[in-house]
Structure formats: C-alpha cells, structure tokens
C-alpha cells in the first residue's frame, strides 16, 4: 500500500514538473540560465539580437559550445525549421524561445529519476521513497528544469553513478564493464564544467577499487584503464575540434588554401589556433582577483548556508550522520582494502552507506576551496543525498518539515525571485510586434534598472532591426539613473519614439525624483528583488502589491 501511494505521488510530482515548465515558471534564478546557452544560440541560429557574454567571445573562450548546440541549439533549429516549412506561422516567439530549451532540460531531468530507481537497490535505499524525495524537491522542480550547465553536470554525475554501481545476479558487486562510457562521461563533464572532476573523483576511485578488487589478471586491469584513457582522449579531441572551429572559424580550406602550405604548416596553424575551453576556464577561475569580480564568500558558505538553502533538513541530517559515521568507521574506512576481503559489504551498510556520504561531502569540500560559492553549484549532490536519506528509518519523522520547506523553495525560486522580468519581456515582445507597430515603424528604448540582466533573445528582434534599443542599467545609483533617464527624455523628438523604464516597485521612488512624467504604467506581479528587498513595514501597509511588483513605465513626451 505504501509503495502504491509513493508511486502515485511520484507520478503526480513528475506531471507537475512537466506542467510547470510549460506554464511557464516565471522565477528567474540567475543570468547564467540564459547567458550560458539559450541567448548565445538564439543569436547564432535564429539571428536574433542578443547579448554575448564574455565567456563566448573569441578573445576569451571559457565555455564549450558543444552542449549549448546540443540543447538550446537543437530546440531553436527545430522551431526555425517548423516556421520555414510553414507548419506553424508564428513558431518563433518569446514563449517558444523560453520554453523549448527548458522543456528539453525537463525531459533530460528524468535521467535523474531513472538513475535513482536503478541505484536505490544497490545502495540499500527504498526506490520509491528516494524517487518521491527527488521529485518533491524544489531543486528538481526548479533548478533541473532550467538551462544551467550545473543541471547537465548533475545529469552526467547521475549517469556516472549508474555506470560504477553494477551487480551480478547473485547479488555481489560486479566488476564494471563500461570503462569506455565512464571515460566519455568524465571528459564530457569536464568540458561542460571543469568542477565536474570534484563530483567524479569518488565514483572514479570506487570504480578503480572494484576493478582492482576483482582479482583479474594484470592484462585485464590494463585493458580497463586503457579503454578509459583512449575514450577520454577521443572525447576531448571532439570537444577541442568543435570549440576551435566555433571560436576561430577555422576551416581546412582556409588553412590549406595555398599550394605552398605543407601538411606540417597546417598542423602548426591548427595547434596555434586550438581552443581548450576548460583550461581557459580554470586559468580564469583560479585567479582570486577574477573570482572577486563575481563575489567572494566565506569558505564555509556551501556547508553552512547553500546546502541548507537547497536541501533543508536532509543536508543537516547528512552532516549529523557524517559525524557519527566518521567517529564509528574511521578505523574501518582506513583499513577496509587491507583487512576486508570479499564483496564490499561494509560500503553498503544497512545503517546508511558511508560511501554515499563520501560521494556527497568530498565534492562539497572541493567546491568549498573556491571563494565564489553559489547554491546552484551544489545541485548535482541531490542524487547521493536522496539515496542516503531514503535508506531505512531515515528522515521519516521530518516529512512535514520536508514538504513545507520544498513548497516554500518552489514558491520563492519558481515564482517570486525576479519573477516579473520574464512576463515583462513577454509583454514588451507583444507590444513591439503588435500590428500597430508593424504597420507604422516605431522606435523603442527599453531601460532596465535594478533587475537581473534581461535576455534580449526573448524580445524576438532580428539583428537587422535597429528600431529597438535595450539599455541595462543593472544596479545603477540614483544620480546615474536620473542622468540616463533625462538624457533619453531629451532625445524624445517624435511621437513614434517610445521609452519604457522597467524598475522594481521597491526603487520606483528613485525614478519619480528624476523630474520626468509617465503616461502609462503597467505593474507585473509578483516580483521579488533580493538586491532591493521590500521593507516589512511597507509590506504590512496597503502598498504591499507595488512593493512585490515590477513596473513598466512609459515616458511622457
């Protein structure tokens, strides 16, 4: 009966995940969900006006283009093809530009569910309990349906876990046979985000341990590691070739254009132009000055704040269990390879696997070495955490707290956080492409202040169109903001010019001091800006709606 309830609950939560993606979710978690894939691909494939982040400029290539092409690139190519084939006349709009890449990521997110279902018996966890914990987590509902490189990192980590956890039909641990796939996934993960090595370290050590423990011949051991290395090198060469071609526009025809060029010259030229994005990423991020530009945090932020913010009581219970197990097993863990022969039963102990805790805390410790610590960096850790938490007699008495925590997280990050910006861009896209605008050319200036970076692609403006200008003021001070607003107002020469200022309700008063008047104002609700939070006394007054809203103010001539 309990299993049937759990299955029904998982099915309901899986439907919610897909349905909420299509609604769509209005919360805006971080600019990287747009600017590390969809925005770039919208410019490259759909020829839309976009903002290219510095990581994708040929002068500083720090992100591989392979995964953006395989995800957002494929979805945008599909909607472009549908429109060209006249299957739908208006396939490319702000809704499809937002939802199509997200929908692909949502489909991919079920790799997590598959992995949990496959892994639970191996690690001594209840499969359906683990699946409900996974599907009910707001991390899965919100973060795993967004176009983050961290999301892909989590999915690759899940696949790696499945590959290293194999069993014979007799129930004993089997020697893994998928060395080639392990090599491919490890390298692909490294090119997606070099931090993947922190997540892959423990699974790879566990895999190497199983191979050594299998008591096979030296020839077999060498064969396993050789397959791993060869497939890793082949995968790396594919990524390097794709990135080199994308970032340098290198063509063999260009390189070998003159008869005088020898093959050696071509190889030298290719070597000089070679782009290895993970090394550029590491050289940038290992410089403390560069990390400081993105914000520095105490080294314990992941342990004390981000882990709790993402996983709530499950993170706290894991820390508690970790200390208890460390105390109990430190001697056995140090001597397990020397003293314990046969299948590693201790590693899947009925009280909860210390190995799973290592899979959780070792990446956490490595990521804590960097001073820039954001919650989304930890989302791959949901897999070992739900497997650990779903072992018998764990987290049962905390059911209500887990439900309330995830409801609050889903509401805060899925709806409220910067929640007015996406609907605002939808509204402006409809306005810009309205029949009135199409029949009579109008010029639009859109000035964003105190919001996250607006993804220009959602405005659906072709690169050839020059009648829309986007100005991102970020968190500009009152003087700078007023100066820009007054400057735009002085350029207001024609009735065909429309200037819109997009600003949160909490700082709307700043614009009213600029000495300009507005003829239209639209309030988009809800919108919570953590950088300009609403004041509690104002929230308790009748003015709470404007404090939790985003204003679109049209400047009067």
TrEMBL record:
Q: Where is it found, in Gene Ontology cellular component terms?
A: endoplasmic reticulum membrane
**Molecular functions per Gene Ontology:** alpha-1,2-mannosyltransferase activity
Transmembrane segment boundaries: 152-170, 190-212, 224-247, 303-326, 346-371, 377-396, 403-428
Q: Which branch of life, at top level?
A: Eukaryota
Keywords (A to Z) from UniProt:
Endoplasmic reticulum, Glycosyltransferase, GPI-anchor biosynthesis, Membrane, Signal, Transferase, Transmembrane, Transmembrane helix
Signal peptide positions on this chain = 1-21
Membrane topology field:
Multi-pass membrane protein
Annotated localization:
Endoplasmic reticulum membrane
- Give the pathway: Glycolipid biosynthesis; glycosylphosphatidylinositol-anchor biosynthesis
The catalytic activity of this protein is classed by the Enzyme Commission as: 2.4.1.-
Could you confirm whether the keyword Transcription regulation appears in this record? Answer: no
Pfam families noted in UniProt:
Glyco_transf_22 (PF03901)
Task: List, in alphabetical order, the GO biological process terms annotated in this UniProt record.
Answer: GPI anchor biosynthetic process
What is the similarity comment for this entry? Belongs to the glycosyltransferase 22 family. PIGZ subfamily.
What is this protein's record name?
Answer: Mannosyltransferase
Q: Whose protein is this, by species?
A: Panurus biarmicus
Lineage of the species this protein comes from: Eukaryota, Metazoa, Chordata, Craniata, Vertebrata
Coding gene? Answer: Pigz
């Amino acid at each position: 009966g309990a299993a049937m309830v759990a299955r029904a609950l998982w099915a309901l939560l899986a439907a919610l995940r897909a349905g909420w993606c299509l609604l769509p979710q209005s919360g805006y978690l971080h600019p990287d969900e747009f600017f590390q894939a969809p925005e770039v691909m919208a410019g490259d494939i759909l020829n839309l006006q976009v903002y290219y982040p510095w990581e994708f400029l040929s002068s500083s290539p720090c992100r591989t283009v392979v995964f953006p092409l395989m995800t957002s690139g494929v979805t945008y190519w599909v909607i472009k093809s549908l429109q060209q084939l006249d299957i739908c006349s208006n396939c490319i709009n702000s809704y499809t530009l937002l939802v199509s890449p997200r929908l692909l990521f949502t489909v991919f997110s079920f790799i997590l569910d598959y992995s949990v279902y496959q892994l639970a018996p191996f690690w001594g966890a209840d499969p359906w309990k683990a699946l409900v914990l996974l599907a009910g987590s707001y991390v899965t509902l919100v973060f795993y349906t967004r176009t983050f490189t961290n999301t892909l990192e989590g999915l690759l980590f899940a696949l790696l876990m499945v590959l290293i956890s194999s069993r014979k039909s007799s129930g004993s641990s089997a020697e893994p046979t998928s060395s080639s796939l392990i090599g491919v996934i490890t390298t692909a993960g490294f090119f997606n985000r070099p931090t993947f090595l922190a997540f892959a370290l423990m699974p790879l050590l566990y895999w190497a341990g199983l191979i050594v423990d299998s008591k096979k011949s030296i020839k077999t051991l060498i064969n396993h590691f050789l397959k791993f290395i060869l497939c890793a090198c082949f995968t790396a060469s594919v990524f390097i070739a794709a990135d080199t071609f994308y970032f340098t526009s290198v063509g063999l025809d260009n390189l070998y254009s003159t008869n005088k060029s020898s093959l050696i010259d071509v190889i030298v030229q290719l070597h000089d132009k070679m782009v290895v994005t993970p090394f550029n990423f590491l050289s940038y991020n290992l410089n403390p000055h560069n990390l400081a530009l993105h914000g520095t945090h105490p080294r314990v932020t992941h342990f004390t704040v981000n882990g709790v913010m993402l996983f709530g009581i499950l993170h706290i219970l894991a820390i508690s269990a970790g200390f208890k197990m460390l105390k109990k097993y430190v001697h056995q863990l140090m001597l397990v390879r020397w003293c314990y022969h046969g299948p590693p039963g201790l590693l899947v102990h009925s009280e909860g696997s210390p190995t799973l805790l290592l899979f959780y805390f070792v990446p956490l410790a490595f990521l804590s070495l960097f001073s820039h610590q954001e919650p989304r960096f930890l989302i791959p850790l949901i897999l070992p955490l739900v497997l650990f938490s779903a072992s018998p007699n764990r987290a049962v008495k905390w059911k209500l707290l887990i439900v309330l925590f995830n409801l609050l997280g889903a509401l805060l990050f899925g709806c409220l956080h910067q929640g007015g910006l996406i609907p605002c861009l939808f509204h402006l896209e409809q306005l810009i492409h309205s029949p009135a605008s199409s029949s009579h050319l109008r010029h639009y200036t859109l000035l964003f202040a105190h919001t996250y970076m607006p993804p220009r692609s959602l405005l659906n403006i072709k690169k050839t169109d020059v009648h829309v200008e986007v100005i991102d003021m970020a968190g500009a001070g009152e003087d700078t903001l007023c100066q820009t607003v007054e400057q735009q107002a002085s350029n207001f020469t024609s009735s065909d010019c429309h200037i819109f200022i997009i600003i949160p309700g909490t700082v709307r008063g700043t614009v009213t001091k600029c000495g300009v008047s507005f003829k239209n104002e639209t309030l988009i609700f809800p919108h919570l800006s953590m950088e300009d939070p609403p004041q509690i006394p104002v929230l308790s007054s009748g003015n709470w709606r404007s404090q939790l809203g985003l204003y679109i103010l049209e400047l009067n001539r």
